[in-house]
Amino acid sequence: MESAALSQIGLAGLAVMGQNLALNIAEKGFPISVYNRTTSKVDETLDRAHREGQLPLFGQYTPKDFVLSIKKPRSIIILVKAGAPVDQTIAALSRLHGARRHHHRRRKRVVREHRAPHGRRLR
Asked: Where is the composition biased (Basic residues) (predicted)?
């Protein structure tokens, strides 16, 4: 992706909440890159973006392409199932993002606190 075409933000995890948030961000005019481990979710989101008005939403099919499609400093929203999927997603994206280890740990804690089921805080 050329630097002029880089997204301002990225979103990983295109279940119902992730897909709707990505489309909402794009509707407001912010270019957004999206990624999901299941590529059919990326295709579905791109189809919706096209049907809803050629929104500035860009689907990526690999973690590497996803990270490289976002301009620096990279802002990435992760909306995946709590637990091991959060850890796996953060680990995969952090390696590509170049995050330092202590930042990785802090981000993981924040993500887990926001995604904890039934209002409990996970540590």
From this structure: 97-123
